[in-house]
């Protein structure tokens, strides 16, 4: 059995966009797994439990020093005794360890572009599209975080995105957003989603997979994870989610519908 470590919110389960990348892979491959829910402030304990080193570091803007960055998803596969962190590394491991399941990480192409480069390129486009929504989404997410994890969550997101806003002591200092500022963020995001629209094949509800093939690959799960995150924190009937599914001729709701068979939570 594979254990998937995911972050825990107050009344929302399986909302974390990075964990959804791995969850999609597990579901697509039809591999049995269970989820272990972990508070945001306790993610480092998963690494310590499995003697894992953090996969990356980041600079603390308040000190200028590098610090370990403990992230999820993490999986532990008891059939091999291995723990793996980072969604792309998890996908590569599952492709290699379970070769009879559908492959999700494309081979390096003739142009020399490997899966990591594909993901990095796509993430750059996606973050560009979502950039105007960073503060609205942070404000919406924060209310769903468990009380004991809220200080950690605010500090972590400030380290991630504070430089975009002049390095405030905390992103909380920029809240609550005025409605006109939030509306401006949504209007800007609608425009920047044009870049994302150009990257994903198909028009409107006739959307295709990122690489244009018959089956999804890891990059499709990256996009699907962020769409589920936005749908979860805002709610299906919210004005925010209705805006997103209305953009680009209904493309994003249709894309998430294409992934509906792989959205189980175990």
From TrEMBL:
Residues 6-102 form the GST N-terminal domain. CDD domains: GST_C_family. This is GST N-terminal domain-containing protein. InterPro entries: Glutathione-S-Trfase_C_sf, Glutathione_S-Trfase_N, GST_UstS-like_C, Thioredoxin-like_sf. It comes from Coprinopsis cinerea (strain Okayama-7 / 130 / ATCC MYA-4618 / FGSC 9003). Transmembrane segments: none annotated. It comes from the Eukaryota. Pfam families: GST_C_7, GST_N_2.
């Amino acid at each position: 059995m594979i254990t998937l470590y995911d972050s825990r919110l107050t009344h929302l389960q399986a909302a974390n966009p990075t964990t959804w990348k791995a969850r999609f892979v597990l579901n697509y491959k039809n591999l049995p797994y269970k989820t272990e829910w972990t508070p945001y402030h306790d993610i480092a304990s998963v690494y310590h439990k499995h003697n894992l080193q953090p996969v990356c570091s980041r600079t603390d803007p308040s000190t200028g020093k590098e610090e370990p960055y403990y992230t999820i998803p993490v999986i532990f596969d008891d059939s091999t005794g291995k723990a793996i962190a980072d969604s792309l590394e998890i996908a590569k491991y599952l492709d290699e360890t379970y070769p009879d399941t559908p492959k999700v990480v494309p081979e390096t192409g003739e142009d020399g572009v490997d899966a990591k480069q594909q993901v990095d390129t796509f993430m750059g486009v996606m973050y560009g599209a979502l950039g105007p929504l960073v503060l609205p989404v942070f404000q919406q997410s924060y209310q769903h975080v468990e009380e004991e994890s809220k200080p950690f969550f605010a500090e972590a997101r400030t380290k991630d995105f504070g430089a975009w806003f002049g390095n405030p002591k905390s992103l909380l200092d920029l809240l609550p957003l005025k409605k006109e500022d939030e509306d401006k963020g949504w209007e800007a995001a609608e425009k920047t989603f044009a870049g994302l629209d150009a990257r994903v094949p198909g028009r409107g509800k006739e959307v295709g997979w990122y690489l244009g093939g018959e089956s999804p690959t890891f990059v499709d799960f990256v996009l699907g994870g962020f769409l589920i995150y936005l749908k979860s924190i805002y709610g299906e009937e919210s004005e925010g989610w209705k805006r997103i599914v209305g953009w680009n001729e209904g493309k994003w709701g249709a894309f998430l519908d294409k992934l509906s068979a792989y959205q189980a939570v175990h």
